[in-house]
Write a structure and sequence with these properties.
The structure holds two protein chains of two kinds. Chain A is mostly beta strands. Chain A is built from two helices and 13 strands. Chain B is mainly alpha-helical. The longest helix of chain B has 24 residues. The chains are: A mainly beta, B mainly alpha.
Chain lengths: 136, 224
């Protein structure tokens, strides 16, 4: 079981393969990572990244999909830890900058002490101070 | 500022639509934050951010830092220092005392920050502390590729630490810190995972001293 960490979530995926420095995930697992393969390319919501014509084999062999190739294509940073079979993927600096430049507060969902999830956008209509603190 | 301050302000401004959402940047998860949250007993959302997601999304590089978000979900103050100063740098570490002028600076800065929040809670867009969009954009620290990668490395480090690989986690944190040296959140969280006292210990003070003339807390320009 490979653990894949994405911003705000983590998923465990069966049947992944490491090939060289790449992580190949079963095509069927892409939706759990927030992506799907369409004729237009690899899509997340309304956004589709066309796969290079003639170079589709860099991305998929039909059964598996190279999630790292997609990450490279989109400038998404990633890192892995072999002993725990864990891969972490982030958003590109461009995506993060565009999000803040829009001035719409980036949405997220986090738990409270009792495990109840709170989504920032559920508090629209309030004047919110979002305050980071720590025990350290 | 201590957690109970936000509950007190929430109660004081109950006639407005002001809402504090506090987020503990805490790789130790719920148990790492529990005692402080239970002591403050907040009625407002008090969340646990084990993977430092909000630091990644908003660019929080220290605590306390805050962003102000209006009723439409628009950021009206960028992520910035929330009422803290560098006064602690003048502390006598043995006697645990600070010169009176530094104590006054800290008190006044904190009071000014809370007053600014009161003003915004009551006056909304008419408050001079609610900044125009272009000014918010100007103040937002842009993300570069190194910082984006640092956020991923820190996320992986936290997961690896939880799995029991403390040495590997430390190496990943080291790599992350080199890419985002401005982030005290990374540095201090990593120290804390080694030993909870370490984030207040000699390493911390040496790192603060190494700042020289640079601030530890970047002042929030127009407040105070």
């Amino acid at each position: 079981m490979t653990k894949v960490l994405l911003p705000g979530t983590e998923v465990a995926i069966k049947g992944c393969e490491e090939r060289g420095e790449d992580l190949w995930v079963p095509v069927g697992s892409l939706p759990t990572l927030g992506w799907e393969l369409k004729p237009e390319g690899a899509c997340r919501g309304d956004f589709c990244a066309p796969l290079h014509a003639g170079r589709e084999a860099e991305f998929t062999d039909g059964n598996r999909f190279s999630f790292t190739a997609l990450a490279r294509r989109l400038g998404m940073p990633f890192a892995s830890h072999a002993a725990t079979d864990t891969w972490a993927f982030g958003e590109s600096s461009e995506t993060r900058n565009d999000a803040l430049d829009s001035l719409i507060a980036p949405d997220f969902s986090l738990p409270d002490l009792s495990g109840g999830e709170h989504r920032l956008s559920d508090y629209r209509g309030k004047k919110v101070i979002l305050l980071a603190w720590a025990s350290w | 500022m201590d957690l109970p301050v936000w509950q007190a302000l929430y109660e004081e401004l109950a006639e407005t639509n002001f809402l504090p959402i506090t987020v503990a940047l805490e790789s130790r998860g719920r148990e790492g934050a529990r005692q402080w949250i239970e002591a403050a007993n907040p009625a407002h959302p008090s969340l646990i951010d084990q993977g430092h997601l909000t630091a990644d999304l908003y660019g929080f590089v220290n605590v306390p830092m805050a962003a102000w978000i209006d009723e439409e979900g628009v950021i009206v103050r960028p992520p910035e220092t929330a009422g803290s100063t560098d006064s602690f740098r003048s502390m006598d570490r043995v006697a645990r005392t600070m010169p009176e002028d530094q104590r006054a600076l800290q008190r006044n800065t904190r009071a000014a920050y809370l007053d600014a929040l009161r003003d915004w809670a009551r006056s909304g867009t008419a408050s001079r502390f609610a900044l125009a969009g272009d000014e918010v954009r100007r103040r937002i620290e842009p993300r570069d590729e190194g910082r984006a990668r640092a956020a991923v490395l820190a996320r992986l480090a936290e997961s690896v630490w939880r799995a029991g690989y403390a040495g590997d986690a430390r190496a990943l944190f080291d790599e992350a810190e080199a890419l985002w040296p401005e982030s005290w959140a990374l540095k201090r969280q990593a120290w804390n995972l080694e030993d909870p006292m370490k984030s207040f210990g000699d390493e911390f003070w040496q790192a603060v001293q190494a700042l020289g003339d640079k601030p530890y807390y970047q002042p929030a320009g127009d407040i105070g």
